[in-house]
Amino acid sequence: MAGDWPTVYGRFRVWRDAGVFSALLEGLIAEAARRGETDLALVSVDSTTARAHHDAAGMRVKPEVLEALEDAVREQERARQKGAPARNKGQGSAGDPGCEERRRIRRRRKARLKQALLGRSRGGLTCKVHLASDRRCRPLSIVITAGQAADSPQFVSVLGKVRIRLPVGRPRTRPGAVAGDKAYSSRANRAFLRKRGIKAVIPEKKDQAAYRKNKGHRGGRPVTHDAELYKDRNTVERMINKLKAWRGIATRYDKTPESYDAGLHLRASMIWLNDLTRVNNAPGQYT
Fold it and tell me: Which pTM was predicted?
């Protein structure tokens, strides 16, 4: 795709809104399934943080959407004030006529960041990419959140996007085993995997193990994981390195999360395309 910048960007937006990039990734995975080159014996889950360039700030939001987001932030502030001590409630608003205006500006800023899926940290604005990878360092699903979002709550969402269309029958959505680091160790995630009949390859946190032991027999059985199978969890980290080979993925320049997500799917599609076009497809050659 060549041409002037407005032409290229306009076509990118058209394809983004039409879902071309996500359909491209799904089609390449389906082609790999048709060739019998997909492997769901083990799926690894992890996340990576992308620093947002200052050009990524200031996303335009429709007035009605911005107003709804401001109302949501205002309700959250009211809920927090209900549990605050009485001496702190309304403090500073009576003596400062501009206090409410400053609060409104802060609420609007928070609403814009929430809509753009950007979070504020010590280093500035960041966003987080949650991913699932197969054993050959190929991406299977992508979820974007704000940078301060925890990994564990996104575990179910990432696995819910794993979908491999087969030539015949329903798409395959259930891997044989799922590997993740200690950040994904929670009862909810383990119950989700157990309900679907998926083997959990997730080590237990030390504080969780101590809490379970303190409860005695009411704490349940000790949590175990396959240490040998856990060694293959590095495939998702290597896949993240492949994704971040693109500067636009390692650092977020896009104002809208839809554009950044489209770039992630495009890069993921290229990883699958390069893998499918290799002459020798031996598993030992994947790096």
Answer: 0.84
